[in-house]
């Protein structure tokens, strides 16, 4: 037996571990020792040793002494969530340190306001090496006072494994939002310690002793990492049977995406997409506006039968694997024919959604997880169902609404395969006429089949405005609300409701007068729509002859084609990121040249502005890994990605230059905030221009512009105008950055109104700056499609309105209702208003 004395690593007051308000430490699950309530801000080494683990969040560090004692120090409680903020590591893993050497500096003020507690735990993690341990009490000074006296025992090399067999679990996806940090690592180690067998946690080629918190934390397992638990010894079967399900369920960690859960449960606010709105009025249900329009009809609950699947396989794993492969192959064929059918109906947008489903079926992880369950004797149907539902549940928990929307796609395609495996026909429910469908979730397959003559609208508990289902609903012109309050599921079939897809609400049992008002309004809207459409090909000219260009915001070729019959005069914004999403690799230069040329051909000589890739932060690309960011909207997004990873931008720039030869193409850069950024981008364009034969000729010049969507660009408009040929104001982002309100926030979204006078003043500043330098300005944010805003924007002096495709006829009609002088008068009044509501009151609307 030997003894080890740890010096106090902090100044402060010693607190017994039992009093730490966290059961993991209080119940000594991580190890035994004591806590210090610190009065200084530097953690120092309590003994000599090697840094064997430094958590990437820099809130925890472990020293291993020459004798193999693992001393772990954990600063504060729940500090893993700070992701390194407030901590400065003074060592790296592998460093040898002496007593009193600095380990981690921390900002106590920051921690005090952002974490649960500053209490810092100093523990021995491998207690099997300790016979007794005693802590001092009272105040201690770092480096000088003794803190813990530990009696150690020699390491026992004998392993229980000799007598047993090796058993491994299926592959498990880690659900914990912050990975296996101290708390879940401690729970896992304690579970593993109940068994005699040696227990290993493996991820690919890496492995850790699952009985050691330090070893587990050393693997730095992150959320969604795929791990396998291996047990070697006499009770290996029991160890795996006990540990694997608990690991898959998150080890009781709060920050865990729940195991498959009904969509009606409240999401965990830590992981879930932003909280959904709730109404205080029992007769009104709130959700997210997914597809505009008003629907008055009777509720029809669309329920899906659960498909029952046997857990155990009838046959050999080989036969089950073959069944699964065959079913996946058949599902791919079904999707192929569906696409051919949709293309024949000239509906390539819908076809593309099912092409994306085919890609989901290629996901190797999905197959691997299913196959690993089959290898354990599970039936193909059970293994497949669990694999896709687990993946879908993880996706549904992600903050990005786009990724969460893909969960619905995955369930849709997963169910398609399951239906084939179980011979469960894809049932076609008998949908009554004039109904408003309510469903937990609608799959893209369900939505594509809807008949707009019978279904007047639908509401789903899951999903969001950017899901494929919402996109399909808009293309079918069916009003839809996503993320509606779950009590919608309790409404009886036949209940009359008014669904407002424009505001994301549903009114239950409206009184007859209300229904009359809505039906009259619908009728008037339909008449107006028809009248606007009849004049869609006329220019948008004010009554005194001032012409405003009205062009389209598009995501691809299909939108471009639709814009022409609606009177579109070109494209003011091609959101080119749509060409990059839903793919495993970036589109090649040739592919891009082809698509830009195809769109230009469809526009038949009309001009087009191609915005370069605008992703990043909340819109990740699978083949462009970027570190997770605390504030994605203020991080590496838009042109900043292009400058950080220039190869993708250079390829796109070359493609645009090539497609621009002999065509009216313009190139526009998103999220420009500084003059340096636009100069760097221009430099890059010049370099690429030199490489594209013909691009240097004056007649092939592609004009360059910027999105004005960061307040700095609006404020410095005159300086920016000297650098470029045109501006297009992205009011969606300009509003969120001006008002500091997340544009997708369910509570702030409505307040983040681009009609706020602060935003209008920035628009005016932009227009004045550009015109002073002889440059033109468009607006391509959502405000340009808002009939209430059109006259004010024209009055401010905006030259071009780039609007959503269906809005083109109405925006043109709106321009024609007033003289330029009237518009200028309105703009002047709007700029002098105090609030967005006052601005909107200037232009009352019946609709
Ligand atoms: C905008 O920010 O207004 C804009 C048009 O760009 P996006 O909506 O694509 O960010
Ligand atoms: Mg934008």
TrEMBL record:
Residues 166-254 form the HPr domain. GO terms for molecular function: kinase activity; metal ion binding; phosphoenolpyruvate-protein phosphotransferase activity. One of its GO terms (biological process) is phosphoenolpyruvate-dependent sugar phosphotransferase system. Its main location: cytoplasm. GO terms for cellular component: cytoplasm. Its cofactor is Mg(2+). It is found in: Cytoplasm. PROSITE patterns: PEP_ENZYMES_2, PTS_EIIA_TYPE_1, PTS_EIIA_TYPE_1_HIS, PTS_HPR_DOM, PTS_HPR_HIS. Its EC number is 2.7.3.9. It catalyses: L-histidyl-[protein] + phosphoenolpyruvate = N(pros)-phospho-L-histidyl-[protein] + pyruvate. PANTHER family: PHOSPHOENOLPYRUVATE-PROTEIN PHOSPHOTRANSFERASE. This is phosphoenolpyruvate--protein phosphotransferase. It comes from Allochromatium palmeri.
């Amino acid at each position: 037996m030997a003894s080890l004395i740890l010096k106090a690593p902090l100044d402060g007051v010693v607190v017994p571990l039992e009093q730490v308000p966290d059961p993991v430490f209080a119940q000594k699950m991580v190890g035994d020792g004591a806590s210090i309530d610190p009065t200084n801000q530097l953690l120092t080494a309590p003994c000599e040793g090697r840094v064997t683990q430094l958590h990437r969040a820099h809130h925890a560090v472990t020293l291993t002494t020459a004798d193999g004692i693992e001393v772990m120090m954990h600063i504060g409680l729940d500090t893993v969530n700070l992701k390194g903020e407030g901590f400065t590591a003074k060592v790296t893993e592998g460093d040898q340190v002496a007593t009193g050497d600095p380990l981690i500096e921390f900002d106590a003020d920051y921690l005090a306001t952002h974490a649960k507690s500053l209490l810092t735990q100093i523990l021995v993690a491998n207690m099997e090496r300790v016979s007794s341990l005693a802590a001092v009490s009272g105040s201690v000074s770092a480096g000088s006072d003794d803190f813990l006296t530990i009696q150690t025992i020699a390491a026992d090399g004998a392993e229980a494994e000799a007598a047993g067999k090796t058993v491994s679990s299926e592959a498990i996806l880690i659900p914990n939002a912050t990975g296996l940090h101290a708390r879940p690592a401690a729970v896992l180690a304690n579970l593993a310690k109940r068994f005699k067998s040696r227990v290993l946690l493996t991820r690919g080629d890496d492995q850790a002793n699952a009985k050691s918190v330090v070893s587990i934390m050393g693997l730095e397992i992150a959320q969604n990492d795929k791990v396998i638990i291996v047990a070697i010894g006499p009770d290996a079967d029991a160890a795996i049977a006990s540990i694997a399900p608990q690991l898959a369920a998150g080890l009781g960690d709060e920050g865990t995406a729940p195991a498959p859960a009904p969509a009606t449960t409240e999401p965990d606010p830590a992981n879930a997409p932003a909280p959904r709105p709730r109404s205080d009025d029992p007769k009104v249900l709130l959700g997210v506006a997914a597809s505009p329009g008003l629907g008055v009809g009777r509720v029809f609950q669309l329920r899906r039968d659960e498909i029952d699947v046997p857990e155990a396989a009838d046959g050999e794993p080989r036969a089950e694997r073959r069944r699964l492969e065959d079913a996946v192959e058949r599902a791919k064929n079904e999707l192929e024919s569906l696409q051919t059918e949709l293309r024949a109906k000239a509906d390539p947008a819908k076809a593309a959604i099912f092409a994306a489903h085919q890609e989901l079926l290629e996901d190797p992880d999905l197959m691997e997880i299913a196959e690993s369950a089959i290898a354990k004797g599970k039936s193909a149907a059970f293994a497949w169902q669990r694999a896709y539902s687990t993946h879908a549940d993880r996706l549904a928990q992600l903050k990005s609404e786009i990724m969460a929307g893909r969960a619905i796609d995955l369930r849709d395609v997963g169910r398609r395969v399951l239906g084939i495996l179980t011979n469960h026909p894809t049932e076609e429910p008998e949908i009554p006429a004039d109904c408003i469908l309510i469903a937990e979730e609608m799959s893209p397959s369900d939505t594509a089949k809807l008949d707009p003559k019978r279904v007047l609208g639908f509401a789903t508990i899951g999903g969001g405005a950017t899901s494929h289902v919402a996109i399909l609903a808009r293309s079918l012109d069916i009003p839809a609300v996503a993320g509606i309050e779950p009590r919608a599921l309790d409404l009886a079939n036949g209940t009359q409701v008014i669904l407002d897809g424009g505001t994301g609400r549903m009114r239950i049992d409206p009184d007859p007068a209300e229904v009359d008002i809505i039906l009259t309004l619908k009728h008037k809207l339909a008449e107006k729509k028809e009248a606007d459409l009849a004049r869609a090909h006329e220019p948008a000219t004010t009554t005194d002859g001032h012409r405003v260009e009205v062009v389209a915001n598009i995501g691809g070729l299909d939108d471009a084609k639709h814009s022409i019959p609606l009177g579109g005069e070109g494209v003011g914004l091609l959101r080119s990121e749509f060409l990059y999403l839903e793919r495993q690799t970036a589109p090649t230069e040739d592919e891009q040249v082809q698509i830009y040329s195809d769109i230009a051909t469809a526009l038949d000589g009309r001009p087009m502005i191609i915005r370069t890739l605008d992703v990043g932060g909340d819109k990740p690309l699978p083949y462009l890994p970027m570190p997770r960011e605390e504030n994605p909207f203020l991080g590496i997004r838009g042109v900043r990605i292009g400058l950080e990873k220039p190869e993708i931008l250079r390829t796109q720039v070359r493609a645009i230059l090539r497609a621009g030869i002999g065509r009216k193409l313009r190139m526009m850069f998103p999220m420009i905030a500084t003059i340096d950024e636009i100069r760097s981008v221009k430099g890059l364009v010049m370099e690429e221009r030199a490489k594209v034969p013909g691009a240097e000729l004056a007649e092939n010049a592609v004009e360059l512009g910027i999105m004005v969507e960061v307040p700095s660009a609006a404020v410095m408009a005159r300086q920016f105008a000297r650098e470029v040929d045109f501006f297009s104001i992205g009011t969606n982002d300009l509003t969120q950055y001006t008002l500091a309100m997340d544009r997708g926030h369910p509570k702030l979204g409505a307040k983040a109104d681009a009609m706020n006078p602060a935003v209008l003043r920035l628009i005016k500043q932009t227009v004045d700056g550009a015109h002073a330098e002889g440059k033109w300005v468009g607006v391509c944010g959502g405000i340009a499609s808002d009939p209430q805003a059109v006259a004010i924007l024209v009055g401010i002096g905006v030259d071009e309105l780039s609007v959503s495709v269906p809005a083109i006829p109405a925006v043109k009609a709106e321009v024609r209702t007033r003289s330029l002088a009237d518009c200028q008068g309105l703009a002047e009044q709007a700029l002098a208003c105090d609030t967005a509501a006052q601005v909107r009151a200037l232009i009352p609307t019946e609709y």
